[in-house]
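The protein record now logged underneath.
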Amino acid sequence: MTAVVKHVIGTTDQDFERLAAPYRGELYAHCYRMLGSAHDAEDLVQETYLRAWKGYDRFEGRSSLRTWLHRIATTACLTALDKRGRRPLPTGLGGPTPTPEGELAERPELPWLEPLPDTLGGLGAGNDHTNDPGAVVTARESVRLALVAALQYLQPRQRAVLILRDVLRFSAAEVAQTLDTTVPAVNSLRQRARAQLDRVTPDEDSVPEPRSDQREVLARYVAAFEAYDIGALTELFTEEAAFEMPPFATWVRGAEHIGRLIASHCPARGPGDLVLVPTAANGQPAFGMYLRAEDGTHRAFGIHVLELAPGGVSHCTVFFDTTLFRLFGLDPVLR
């Protein structure tokens, strides 16, 4: 994406590239919140920059460049959403299964929610151009999997208003201009969106703060999986932890059920079959998991995104879409 845009812009307008480049991560995160897909967000950010570059000579500065870029991105996202349904997680489709050993219900036809690599959403080290620790925390919370999944329940214009007003802090007048509507209409959409979000999203107080012993918990998580120690894995999850695995609609709740699910359905059979490579997604700790193939090589298997709580791991989402490894900068095969 970046190479394509830079190649086009670099040969025509260095000034535009210099001014617009700092907003790339922010725009990527915005498109991701709107669409729920890192792949789609990648395409829409490229489309935004190409549209902006083509129209830059008509940009008269009546709004900030940031506002103008977000207007282009939001319009592109709303157009894309006309043809697409919401992207859920398994936990948003029904209750947990009481029988972890049972057959998994695979739903490959559903457009599942995808994780967002921190490096693409402007959340990685060195990507915060505000130099404001508070802004980094806010940005991370606004792309957490639970919140982005909840945003998918909103109508597209409600979603746009809520993100532009409450996450990106645009004024009601700026949002009205972006959506070609009125300030009262923006306020009404925002009010309805907040009410709907309150019904489907976890309470803010339930989102754990970063813990000093995170590193130890994550190290134990890696060690347990790589040793394929089901008992050690079970001990790491909280009593009410959730474990889900799109594209499977089946999910489980509770440490014991999680252990039984992994023991029954994970294709690993012993120590060394799995390798976990650390990464970060949605402002949360994550791992790329590799499974040993018959030829002895470890191949891309899934992306784990974790939510940590004082008692251990409170939520794990495993994304079995191996095309995500490219977005995370992870090789398809470990060398």
Strands lie at 237-245, 248-253, 274-281, 284-292, 298-309, 312-319. The two ends are 26 Å apart (CA to CA). Residues 183 and 318 are 41 Å apart (CA to CA). Confidence is low (pLDDT under 50) at residues 1-12, 125-137.
